[in-house]
Amino acid sequence: MSERAWRPVLSMRWRRLLFVHWRVPPQALRPLIPEPLQIDTFQGAAWVGFVPFVMESVRPVWLPPVPKLFDFPEANVRTYVRYGEQRGVWFFSLDAAHRLAVWSARRFWKLPYFQARMRCQLIGPNEVAYETVRRDRSRAFARVRYRFEGEPRETEPGTLEHFLVERYTLFTAHRGRIYRGEVAHLPYATQPATLLELEQNLTDAAGIALPAELPIVFYAPGFGVLASALRPAPIANATGRI
Question: What's the structural domain count of the chain?
Answer without folding.
Answer: 1
